[in-house]
Amino acid sequence: MKRWFLKNPALLNQVKNSVAKNYPDLRIDETSERIILRGSFPVSANGTVVDRFQIEVEFPDNYPDGIPTVREVGGRIPHHSDRHVIVKTKSACLFLREESSKYYPPGTTILDFLSGPVNDYFLWQTEFELTGQPTVKARQHGIDGIIEFYKEELEIEDPKAILNCIDYLRKEAKGHWPCFCGGGKKLRECHMEKFVALRIKVSLKVAEQFFEDFEKVTAPKKKSL
Question: Which of 89, 141, 211, 222 has the most crowded Cβ, counting Cβ within 10 A?
Answer without folding.
Answer: 141
